[in-house]
Amino acid sequence: MQAVSSLSPADPAETKAETTQGETRVSETVSLAEKLKSGSPVVTGWSMLAVPILAELMGRGGYEAVTVDFQHGAHDIASAREALAAMVLAGTYRLARIPVGDNATASRLLDLGAQAVIAPMINSVEEAKAFAAATKYPPLGERSWGPHRAAMLDGLPLEAYLEKANRETVSLAMIETPQAVAALDAILAVPGIDGVFVGPSDLSLTLSAGADMDRDGEKTTQAIRTIADHARAAGKIAGIFCMSPEKVMEARDAGYTLMAYGADMGLFHAAASTARKACTV
């Protein structure tokens, strides 16, 4: 396969594969929804900084997906718009996480080209229904029509985008509290909710009532396993944050198909530190 130029877009007809320059790209012939629901693993990088080219570089560096973080990251609508477009150049699946309860931003990010939206702190069926309504068109939801940029990025006429939107848009509810775990099956059963995504930090914090943040504690570990088991039983997607490559493998073995590992801030800092330490002057 011909190497991807640093200036040229990836060919969406190609499958994700290593090139002669070590860059990779992902096939748009298989949607993110199809890939995740088939059980194939996807590792997503995490875009915290409002620097769109970093999202593209994460894709070119090997990540098959990148998530733009609106909850704890520095992104605004302008940087997210450019980051989502930059991901297309890298042939990377495009995800975004919204702030807590901000379903209007979920709709807007989908209009700008996100293929999946992650909603934090979904603790009830009512919250799950409101989120699903904002991300799916009628009759499944109440998403307002206006995906002009999204259709452009996909290279589709608007009619073709509408035909696939509800089927290929991935809506993931974050499970981060005891209340959410208790309502897990009901949340998974909400029409338009395609799966769940675990935030181990908040989950451990809330399970301990704020006493500690032990992502590897017994309660947290058991909850993480339970969430994956119930998602699989419901035929839904299970995703999770991972703090190390070993945790990515553990999550995959537990039944998760979407694993987040590696944020741009940490990756850049580690690369800068390694580069400077290599200079012994």
UniProtKB/TrEMBL annotation:
Gene3D superfamilies for this protein: Phosphoenolpyruvate-binding domains
Entry similarity comment: Belongs to the HpcH/HpaI aldolase family.
UniProt biased composition (Polar residues): 18-27
SUPFAM superfamilies for the chain: Phosphoenolpyruvate/pyruvate domain
Full protein name: 2,4-dihydroxyhept-2-ene-1,7-dioic acid aldolase
This protein's record includes keyword Metal-binding: yes
Keyword entries, A-Z: Lyase, Metal-binding
Keyword Metal-binding on entry: yes
Domain of life: Bacteria
Pfam families recorded: HpcH_HpaI (PF03328)
Annotated HpcH/HpaI aldolase/citrate lyase domain residues: 46-269
InterPro entries named in the record: Aldolase/citrate-lyase_domain, HpcH-HpaI_aldolase, Pyrv/PenolPyrv_kinase-like_dom, Pyrv_kinase-like_dom_sf
A molecular function GO annotation: aldehyde-lyase activity
Any one GO cellular component localisation term in the record: cytoplasm
Region Disordered, residue ranges: 1-27
Species of provenance: Roseibium aquae
PANTHER family: 2-KETO-3-DEOXY-L-RHAMNONATE ALDOLASE, PHOSPHOENOLPYRUVATE CARBOXYLASE FAMILY PROTEIN
